[in-house]
Design goal:
5-stranded antiparallel beta sheet, 27 strands, single chain, mainly beta
Length: 351
């Protein structure tokens, strides 16, 4: 068990901790849990669109010069690629935004000439920088080259009825696609893009789903599926064999009301977004609640109707704040954060 898990195995009392709370300090740092407890999550910033980089005077598209100057409207899914670029699907604008924060640039796939999406839900990339997008209006999953050219439209044995959540396992060479209306997970070979397996069917028993929505894969290839209308999380091994499930509908810590996005940090903690609670709950590997953060509101660090979530290689957490048309960025103050802080302190001493 990690230091984080040991320190946070406490009883989360009251609705304020479960649902989170809007920060009272409009300008200072925002942490969870609040002092005097040791902080584990820190609010960093928000991504909204091209205006993010207006102060620096840089709002150029990476590929085509000046962008259209647009901002997010109704973001839904989020993904961070191996280069640190943040991809965000926008169902209202039928587009995918890309925030290249390292180069202070933001552009959309339509800026690259990709104008084929209607209601993009999820987006992921693989180690070859190919881009995969699910579109629930036309029931497609499209594979794109890094330059935006269409490589393939995935064709499962049974046609998609509402493809939503996506996840890539680069080690096992697998692409996972949730079909919400067929209540299952389609498995594709990442190299051939051929359909090779289907996990689950509709039901309430172990390994069955009721309108699943989001999916994630850990470093060992285990698969985490948000079984939304059964109010639980289900976990499978890399072969699709059921391991365990946890969660139920309710309003106590560790329960769910409308679970959505799911992601894992580098220390194996599981993050689950709840659109009804307007927060993110963090669980250990066994499904025990550790902490809840954020809460209802439009101010800094708060959110309304959150959806997708992604965690990058440095343990920064990106949560889609759908109603407020932004992506909130938080930091997990774990071992990687401590290493960065130690490196920064050492660098200052050398100066």
């Amino acid at each position: 068990m990690s230091r984080f898990a040991r320190k946070l195995l406490f009883v989360l009392a009251g609705a304020m901790i479960l649902y989170g709370c809007a920060p009272t300090n409009p300008h200072g740092d925002v942490f969870w849990p609040e002092p005097p407890d040791e902080p584990r999550i820190k609010y960093v910033r928000a991504h909204r669109g091209t205006a993010d980089f207006a102060k620096s005077g840089v709002a150029a598209s990476l590929f085509l010069g000046e962008t259209s100057g647009t901002n997010l409207s109704k973001p839904m899914g989020v993904h961070v690629d191996r280069h640190g670029k943040v991809f965000v699907t926008d169902t209202a604008k039928s587009d995918i935004f890309v925030f290249d924060t390292k180069n202070s640039k933001v552009f959309t796939l339509s800026d690259m000439g990709v104008k084929i999406f209607y209601k993009p839900i999820s987006v992921v990339t693989d180690d070859s920088d190919r881009i995969f997008v699910s579109d629930s209006q036309v029931d497609t999953v499209t594979a794109l080259a890094p330059d935006g050219k269409v490589i393939a439209i995935l064709k499962p044995e049974v046609p998609f009825q509402q493809p939503t959540g996506l996840a890539v396992d680069n080690n096992k060479k697998r692409l996972y696609v949730i079909d919400t209306h067929t209540h299952d997970v389609r498995v594709f070979d990442l190299e051939t893009l051929k359909h090779i397996n289907t996990i689950g069917k509709r039901g309430k028993e172990e390994g069955e789903f009721n309108f699943p929505s989001h999916i994630a894969v850990d470093a060992n290839g285990n698969i985490y599926v948000v079984d939304t209308m059964n109010g639980r999380m289900q976990i499978f091994d890399s072969e699709g064999k059921f391991i365990r499930a946890f969660g139920q509908f309710g309003d106590s810590p560790g329960m769910f009301a409308r679970p959505r996005g799911v992601a894992l940090d580098s220390e194996g903690h599981l993050y689950v977004v709840d659109a009804a609670f307007n927060n993110v709950q963090i669980f250990n590997a066994e499904g025990r609640i550790l902490l809840g953060f954020s809460g209802y509101g439009s101010g800094r660090a708060a959110m309304i109707l959150p959806a997708g979530i992604a965690i990058d290689n440095e343990d920064y957490i990106y949560v889609v704040d759908s109603w407020n048309s932004r992506v909130n960025v938080y930091e997990f103050l774990g071992e990687k954060s401590k290493a960065r802080e130690a490196a920064a302190t050492q660098a200052k001493k050398k100066k």
